[in-house]
């Protein structure tokens, strides 16, 4: 009978407290880097900002640069996605709206501040990877649109620069909020220009 009442240790759930602590530390790191820049980022501030014990930071990331790199990559996913609904106009508008929202986040500000540092290193390489992911996602979507006949043949990097440039300009100036109407106008003008140019060649 005693055997039947033996208390067995509860199976440990994946993630749990350690996963929450890591997420808090990474979020705090992204915000601190956005606030102070990569060169001004102070490793010692992370624990207090994340409301965790210092040992949690040092144990998980003994190297300062590894922490910064992981924090940046963790918050990069939304900036590197382009949906495929079958409607290229809508997908590009959605992309621009998400891009504008992302640029206004701590990670987005970090990315904007740190893409042109004077030295190369793991952090810079991580930022380069993020930008490369965004370019690759745009290229896949544009190539698919060309194959389907949604767009005339166009260099995806050129199209990406044409539509995303105004977003960076409006958001970085901070003079007004970037709206979906802005995204609609930008995509409409650029796609109309591409189609008109193709029709006359």
From TrEMBL:
State the PANTHER family in the record.
HTH-TYPE TRANSCRIPTIONAL REGULATOR RUTR, TETR-FAMILY TRANSCRIPTIONAL REGULATOR
InterPro entries in the record, alphabetically?
A: Homeodomain-like_sf, HTH-type_TetR-like_transc_reg, HTH_TetR, Tet_transcr_reg_TetR-rel_C_sf, TetR_C
Q: What is this protein called?
A: TetR/AcrR family transcriptional regulator C-terminal ligand-binding domain-containing protein
What is the native source organism of this protein? Nocardiopsis tropica
Top-rank taxon: Bacteria
Q: Which UniProt keywords apply?
A: DNA-binding, Transcription, Transcription regulation
DNA-binding region spans which residues?
Answer: 42-61
Query: Domain HTH tetR-type: where?
Result: 19-79
Cited PROSITE patterns: HTH_TETR_2 (PS50977)
- Matches recorded under Gene3D superfamilies: Homeodomain-like, Tetracycline Repressor, domain 2
* Listed Pfam families: TetR_C_11, TetR_N
């Amino acid at each position: 009978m005693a055997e039947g009442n033996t208390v067995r240790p509860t199976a440990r759930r994946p993630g749990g407290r350690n996963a929450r602590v890591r997420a808090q530390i990474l979020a705090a790191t992204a915000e601190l880097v956005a606030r102070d820049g990569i060169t001004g980022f102070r490793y010692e501030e992370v624990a207090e900002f994340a409301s965790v014990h210092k040992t949690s930071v040092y144990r998980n990331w003994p190297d300062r640069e590894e922490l910064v790199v992981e924090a940046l990559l963790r918050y990069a996913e939304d900036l590197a996605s382009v949906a495929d609904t079958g409607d290229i106009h809508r997908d590009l508008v959605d992309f621009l709206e998400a891009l504008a929202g992302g640029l206004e986040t701590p990670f987005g500000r970090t990315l904007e501040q740190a893409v042109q540092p004077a030295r190369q290193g793991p952090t810079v390489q991580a930022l380069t990877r993020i930008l490369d992911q965004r370019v690759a996602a745009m290229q896949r979507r544009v190539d698919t649109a060309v194959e389907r006949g949604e767009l005339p043949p166009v260099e995806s990097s050129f199209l990406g620069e044409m539509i995303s440039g105004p977003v960076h300009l409006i958001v970085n100036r901070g003079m007004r909020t970037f709206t979906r109407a802005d995204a609609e106008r930008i995509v409409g003008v650029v796609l109309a220009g591409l189609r008109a140019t193709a029709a006359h060649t």
